[in-house]
Amino acid sequence: MESERMRALEAAFERERQQRDLLEKKYARLKRRYIRLERSHARLVMESHGPKLIHRITGHVASKNTQH
Fold it and tell me: 9-66 pLDDT, tens per residue?
């Protein structure tokens, strides 16, 4: 009787571990996707507003070839 209970607990623990591992993988994937989107958004903002932002900060108009 006691060994049956132990097997049931071990099986439940294993299912919980597998579920946790799966959720951790999903979270890591979502985090990577979020970081990629954040970087893409920042790049698009800089490409579309970069010269205006640089002009506002420095008072100079930056060309596309200017490297900072």
Answer: 999 999 999 999 999 999 999 999 999 999 998 888 888 876 666 566 666 655 555 5
- Of 60, 35, 25, nearest to 43 (Cα)? 35
DSSP state of 59: S
* Cα 19 from Cα 21, distance rounded (Å): 5
Q: Kind and range of the H or E element at 17?
A: helix 2-58
**Torsion angle (degrees, nearest 10) of CA 11, 16, 22, 26:** 170
Exposure of 51 by Cβ count < 10 A (0-12 exposed, 13-18 middle, 19+ buried)?
middle
